[in-house]
User: Fold these one by one.
Assistant:
Number 1:
Amino acid sequence: MQETHTKTKIVVDRTLCDGNGNCAAAAPELFRLEQDDTLKVLRDMVDESQRAKAEAAVRVCPKAALKLVEER
């Protein structure tokens, strides 16, 4: 039986994101808030070692602008 690895993609709804930086504070290895308050995603695909940080960033977003999408 072959094991399938699931990849997790970080998706940002730019129409909702207001650049408050909660995600960057929760997961600085995944997000950075630029000088003009735009969000930069540093890694759009996360592995299992980064998943907890990505989930924390999604939870702290007050605008619900982040989500994680599982890809096979």
Number 2:
Amino acid sequence: MEKLNKKRKDKTPAMSETIMTEVVYPNDANPMGMLQGGRLVQWMDTASAICAQTHAGRIAVTASINKVEFKSPAKVGDIISINAKVTRAFDRSMEIYVHASSRKVISGEIYPVCEAYFVFVALDDNANPTTVPGIKPETATEKTFYKNALVRRKGKD
């Protein structure tokens, strides 16, 4: 089991990118027919957990959610696409950028709904934090997210 605790080879963000799709049903909405924010954050947490666990190759748990920004309301019948991607891996944690967009079925119009940064911690078999593989950003956008993740992390100290 010791080998599991050693840092693994760096991975690219694309290797664990997760895209999840949901439909807004009436039980997901408020009385105005708009998607409830809590339901959307729950979906985003699920997508980011899948992303984090895929990256780490281990169970990972939510440590924090940072800078949740609701952009536009989604309505009953809209199709929600949630994209989660690791921006940076630290020793035992990973920052995941998650954004959700909505698509109107009839018109095909797509618009942003929400974005947030989730931090996950990988756990070993005894539920203790354990090391995660590093991230090797490839695109200019990934490199910017990578650099800014450190700024966000230092801003919490």
Number 3:
Amino acid sequence: MNLKKIQKLISQDIFCLHNQIATELSSDINLINQFNEYILTNQGKYIRPIAVILATKALKCKTNKYLTLAVLIELIHMATLLHDDIIDNSKTRRGNKSAHVIFGHASTILVGDFIYTRAFQMIASLNSFRIFKILSNTVNTVVKGEILQLMHAYNPNITVKNYIQIIYRKTASLFEVALYSSAILSKANLIEEKALRNYGRYLGISFQLINDCLDYDIKNSNAKIHIGNDLNNGKLTLPLLHAMKNSNKNQYDFIRKAIKMGNKQYLLNDILKIMYEHNSLEFTLNYAKIKIKKAISCLNALSHSPYRSALKELAKSSLKQIC
């Protein structure tokens, strides 16, 4: 079962999801509606809300508020992307111009804030203090992850522990809370809650590891991926950290110099040669596979169903970008 088959399994829900996102983003302010059109035209794969829908259906959720949860999780993700692209000075998003390039920095920041507030309005409608608490804590965690990454930018002394902490906070924590909230909304037992929470965390970590791998993977690059963006922005990810750890002194010194300089695209080819020499992309991919296996093993706590099977395939689907 690939991602298209997963989407087909819940096609009606995805149709409703898309429409509700459009509704929630609509406003009497024209600029917000312009962003609405831009966002919906350049939408991603809906990985997080799909995970919410599958999890709640696997748990036989008895309320239709699962769609509200799926939408607000996606809105939080959208807001982080708008802000991320400004922080990273990314000119493109999914092969198209980034929002801040089209609308300007100030407008993009404010609309990102608007989307955050809309998400919190929706959280209140769930009438669950537990969900409100864990979601609000997670948004705080995501922002702290961004700050940590900014603090470590262009820092060649960052450790793997620092890196894992950043990707957990920035990426995996939102996956984790999406699945955890799904369990709470579905009135799951404590074993199922823990299983889905762990599934989300492992899925999120693997998702980011693969993205970081793709940033240096020439063989699998496409028009939507610009090789070396992380290096240009001073982000030290696992492929680069692995290459540094396993390189000789000259290579090590060269990588440290490239990190400190930043925005030096002409150094990228030499960096890539060192990475391929030490199999750094393969190492990162294997680490992601370990996390995917852990995520899938968590699902054994759930009853057999097409939705549980789809959650397993969702975890595997990210690998297909690079394998």
Number 4:
Amino acid sequence: MRILLIEDDIDLSKALEEALNDHSIIVDTCSDGESGSYIARTNNYDLLLVDNILPKKLGVNICKELRNLGDKTPIIFMSIQDDVSDRINFLDSGADDFISKPFSINELVAKIKAITRRSYEIKQNIITLDDVTINRENYTVHKKGKSVYFTRKEFMILEQIAEKPGKVITRSEIMDHVWKKDFNQFSNTIETHIRNIRKKIDGKKDKKIETIPGRGYRIKRKLI
């Protein structure tokens, strides 16, 4: 999952980025409303986490702009403003939820997961690829019943490809989902991660991930 955090408190922004990374959430950050609105409109995110009181443009105005453009990306507001009237204002602007500062990271992660679950088709918690099982809830992979260690990015790539059997997932889609916006698109990092994933889940004759030259990767439909 990749989200955009628009927050002008740099220390809080860094702390949230580190904490969310531990929950396999990739975070792009921005510290003012104008830049945040532009980045949100020109990139694909699973969710936006937005402070309301921002330099150059308020969070509610960012939200209104996006909704007026038909952008349905889930938005969670963060604010010390906690009156009922403030919450109503946030929701009326098009936000999906609100969290009051200060908050616990566990509460925030729970809200993010709940909202993204509602925003997409209901996803099964377990994906099965023959003798390999992928557990979305606890970020684990098992092969023939035995736990296999996956790095955070390896898990995110495998999950992204495996959840759409038969569909080609492009390098650009993988980059948008797993890496931050400043990722070098000419790097061979994706290929290296795919190679490592294959070593962990493939058998001698059982090749689960196909490379589609010039396009990307896909899981063979018959394996699901």
